[in-house]
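Input record (one chain):
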Amino acid sequence: MRFVLLAAFLVCGLVACQQATWESTMAAAQHAVQQGNYAEAERLLLVAVRKAEEFGLHDRRVAVSLSQLAQVYAGQGKHVEAEPVYLQALKIYQEVHGEDHPDVAATLNNLGVLHRMYGQYAEADPLLTRALLIKERLLGPEHPDVALGVANLAQLRVAQGQPERAEPLYRRALNIREKTLGPSHPEVAKTLDDLANVLKKLGRREEAVSLEVRARELRAARS
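The corresponding structure, as predicted from the sequence alone:
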């Protein structure tokens, strides 16, 4: 009995040690990202992936590590490297959580943004739309994460040359952010500028200028 308890203690100690090592590696990678040292962050995250795999190839920690690695790839403009890593993380998240989960929505959103950045609008559209639908189901129609999803879809519409479809999306994102973040939040000012840009494309310059003035006033009030 004493041997069994000792063995169990050693196993638990090993798992705790592995967890601490994985966490410390992830923390170091995040610090490298904050310092703008993407090469070091990439190296550390590759180590973190290997450490996470010690818990099992389909453990959520593997997906977390992969997601961070994909973001670092994307931040360096490595689209070819980032996409399959995001897809691998997405597969694990779906296996662990099912289809309706914040991790799944976030990864779909990141994949959609990645495709948009590289002009792959047909691929980006269903990903961003699906991510938004999941967020709405989980969080309700008025939540900051929903506003982010709406704004990302609006940005895609602008990139597609469809400002008339982007306008109602930006207005919805603005309304949510004003309600949930407060009228003076930086994201409100950013959304005002984005909406103003759309209005200019639609030939409504006077409306656009008034929004830009409001955005500048918000920023000045916070400085």
